[in-house]
């Protein structure tokens, strides 16, 4: 109790952030499992210990950058951050980054799942080696920016608790985390808090269902490796189920009807991969049912709307040639075996893949921070969240505030990666100038703001064909290519961009073995 | 109804197998989805259609060999069977064969899961190409041998049903199947029957728990790819959980205590792989927790009891050197976080792998066929089940009847593979001699009986060391090797024995990348 009241006495009332008694009390309960974990009190397993965690950094420690998320933005940032200046703590429910542009290829076995997943410990080795850097396999449950007061190293708080003199930590904002449980009922999530000097929110976005009934329950999205695994298992199950004796013609056709909703690059690439799989592998290895399998791509507007008209027509022609049925329509309702379009048409399906774009996640929606149009976390030109100190937001979860006069950038890997790259050099610059600690970069000159320059778009459409559109935007002029040459450009571009040499090698090996032996059809 | 009574009239009363009225009636309900599936009546989806299936083969069709299971015995048989003589139908809940000797290596990422899984359609391409051959992703629910009467092609049953003359099928024994449902509540299993001319039971065995409480619920076996996947996910989860702030010392040690029960080749190889993983990868990439991870191998008797004494001592020394704690003990009880030994010792664990050997599966136990000592399906020297016609049993599910005077062979891949090989040549010989049809090989001379000659045993113990024991049995003399040379022999032997060139290539590539880049730690 003395600790609490002492803490209140020295509250920095000049800051606009109010420090409440209860929050101050929480800080005293922090356990720091850092260099000498022998001092942590033994906690009974599976008990929810609300307030354990990493407390504010001490004067003899490096300032701490907490990164929420392990997508394009967060990983690019972690890759480039100077770990001699900062400790890095990453919080994410997955310990790897997914190389999303190649994810569609893994659904049918053209590539293996592990070839497109890059462990974070490989992207930033410090995270598992440095004593103050960590990766936590956890969900972020909330962000507490109120407490981000910050004292510089010279003004450490000294208090007397239970009669012995001790140095109290500086205050800092914190992140509430809950460990993943793999949806096992036997596993209770472990709750803890991490204080930050700098916070980078890179939480990404969620697939949007537009509130259409039944999508969440029956469709599979295509954003994570486990989605691709689910699609592959379901596709192989349906192929085998349709061969079982006694299955009616109608049921066979339903099981083998693959429906893709959403004609953006993901939907188109997946449709192209599926038709390749059907033309090459199903015809050979499921010859009993080969005439029953069909792919339908449903899109409300035009497919690949961001691409050049000429490329779009080319893609439409090529997809139709490969047997993909293109349907213009809006989905009204989805049940477990059929979907219903706006005009009443019923479309029975065996596999439904939903890739209609993304929207803000529940967590991002719940954050009490200013938002950009569309509900993304509002940022200024330096990717800062302006209402609070030391908080940045990058990637799909963020968008410019209207006051900046800039339009919100599309939710693309390219944007996220560029923002991660910009932010790590900004943070490195701040750190070098001595502004790494909480609240110590307030009046620092940040230099050039972030500027996004679109480098173009690529999409493969199957049958060794791809589109490459190097125009900066829909209106401007520039190079656009379609066909086999584009496909070579597509393959080589991605091969060089895959993060590690190990995965570059595996992607090349997977492509080669798929070419020689066909796709793997083990259902594991 | 006329069909039924007619059928009864022509019952072959000379056979010992009684044909009941109800069974005959069932046969009339068979749908054959063969060459012209347009004639199958449309069945509502998800409805249990008990009696659809593949009826007895017709005179213009090849005789049908039904293989239950896709392990070593079943796959070796399918690989070699002459598909110009027989149609092959395989029933198994997995569409691939697992190369079990390398399964332990996949748990820690030395090898990838797909490198040790071989699709059955690749082992026997006819199964997906020939009009009468099939693979059914289903469980076998029962075997009906009573109905196996069989008429030769000349004595087809002709009957009059509803006033029109029709040819009735020959009668044959059948197998009851249920499609897999992936434990999804939304999926109702589809039930169907398959008649056989020849039936090969290759259902394998189940991991035995010796009735010890809590084993099934808490331990992971190591027999299927999904077991290896579960082990890998759990191990990576525990490594990351143990790094979470606030976790007590005790809990950290528990999470990172890997316990292996059973000191046979699988248990020893898995322990060796684990210690390799810890020494090389954990030390580098989980340096925060590297001092907490330990491996304990519990065995009631001696480890590797089938190996030469010298090799056994070598293995014991090497394992201890790599940090594997060897404990002599019997497990009495298992709960979710600790196991209890017979002497009362409590062993807390984070990962528990159970590999104490195998016993007959529930299905094999339920079959009303004579059994060998130990509850395996009784066979004679030609691998036939003697009490019924045209039924063979191979691999772990079978054992010699006491009347043969032969001792039951151990449940080894080597035995299963050799039996599969013997049986395909026996069946090919029978087929060539015109005995392929149901009940037509009754009095045929079968030639040499099956003789098993043990070629030796191999096991790797980690750290580039292995054991190779080329003695035919425990008592006889012969070459035995231990060390790096053995390890080279071990690797090259398995590399050449992996079934397909694709997987040989992938195993080599996996080994090479593990050597260069370390093991993959993405938790996907």
UniProtKB/TrEMBL annotation, chains A, B:
Residues 454-520 form the External alternative NADH-ubiquinone oxidoreductase-like C-terminal domain. Keywords: FAD, Flavoprotein, Membrane, Mitochondrion, Mitochondrion inner membrane, NAD, Oxidoreductase, Peroxisome. Residues 34-45 have a biased composition (Pro residues). The keyword Flavoprotein applies. The keyword Oxidoreductase applies. Belongs to the NADH dehydrogenase family. This is NADH:ubiquinone reductase (non-electrogenic).
């Amino acid at each position: 109790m003395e600790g609490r009241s002492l803490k209140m006495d020295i509250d920095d009332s000049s800051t606009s952030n109010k420090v409440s008694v209860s929050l101050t009390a929480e800080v005293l309960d922090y356990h720091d499992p850092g260099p000498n974990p022998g001092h942590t009190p033994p906690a009974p397993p599976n008990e929810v210990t609300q307030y354990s965690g990493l407390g504010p950094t001490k004067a003899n420690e490096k300032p701490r950058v907490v990164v929420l998320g392990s997508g394009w933005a967060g990983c690019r940032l972690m890759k480039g951050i100077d770990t001699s200046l900062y400790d890095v703590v990453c919080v994410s429910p997955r310990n790897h980054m997914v190389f999303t542009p190649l994810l569609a290829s893994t659904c049918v076995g053209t590539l293996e799942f592990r070839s497109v997943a890059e462990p974070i410990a490989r992207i930033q080795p410090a995270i598992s080696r440095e004593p103050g850097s960590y990766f936590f396999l956890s969900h972020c449950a909330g962000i507490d920016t109120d407490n981000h007061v910050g004292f510089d190293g010279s003004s450490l708080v000294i208090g007397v608790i239970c009669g012995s003199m001790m140095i109290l930590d500086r205050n800092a904002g914190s992140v509430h985390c809950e460990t993943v449980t793999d949806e096992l009922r036997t596993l209770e999530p472990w709750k803890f808090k991490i204080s930050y000097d700098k916070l980078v929110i890179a939480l990404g976005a969620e697939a949007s269902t537009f509130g259409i009934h039944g999508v969440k329950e029956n469709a599979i999205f295509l954003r994570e490796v486990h989605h691709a695994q689910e699609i592959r298992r379901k596709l192989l199950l349906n192929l085998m189920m349709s061969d079982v004796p006694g299955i009616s013609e109608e049921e066979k056709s339903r099981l083998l009807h693959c429906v893709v909703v959403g004609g953006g690059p993901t939907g188109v690439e997946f449709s192209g991969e599926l038709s390749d799989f059907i033309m090459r592998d199903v015809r050979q290895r499921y010859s009993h049912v080969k005439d029953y399998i069909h792919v339908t791509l449903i899109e409300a507007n035009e497919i690949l709307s961001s691409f050049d008209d000429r490329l779009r027509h080319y893609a439409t022609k090529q997809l139709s040639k490969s047997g993909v049925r293109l349907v213009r329509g809006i989905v009204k309702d989805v049940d477990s075996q059929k979907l219903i379009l706006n005009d009443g048409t019923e479309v029975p399906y065996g596999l439904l893949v939903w890739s209609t774009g993304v929207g803000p996640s529940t967590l991002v929606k719940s954050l009490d921070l200013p938002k950009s149009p569309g509900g993304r976390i509002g940022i200024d030109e330096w990717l800062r969240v302006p209402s609070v100190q030391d908080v940045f937001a990058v990637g799909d979860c963020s968008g410019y505030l209207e006051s900046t006069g800039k339009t919100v950038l599309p939710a693309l890997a390219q944007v996220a990666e560029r923002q991660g790259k910009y932010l790590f050099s900004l943070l490195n610059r701040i750190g070098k100038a001595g502004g790494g600690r909480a609240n110590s970069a307030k009046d620092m000159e940040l230099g050039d703001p972030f500027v996004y320059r679109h480098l173009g778009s690529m999409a493969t459409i199957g049958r060794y064909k791809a589109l490459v559109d190097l125009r900066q935007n829909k209106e401007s002029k520039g190079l656009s290519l379609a066909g086999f040459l584009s496909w070579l450009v597509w393959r080589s571009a991605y091969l060089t961009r895959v993060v590690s040499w190990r995965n570059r090698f595996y992607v090349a090996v997977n492509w080669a073995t798929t070419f020689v032996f066909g796709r793997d059809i083990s259902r594991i």
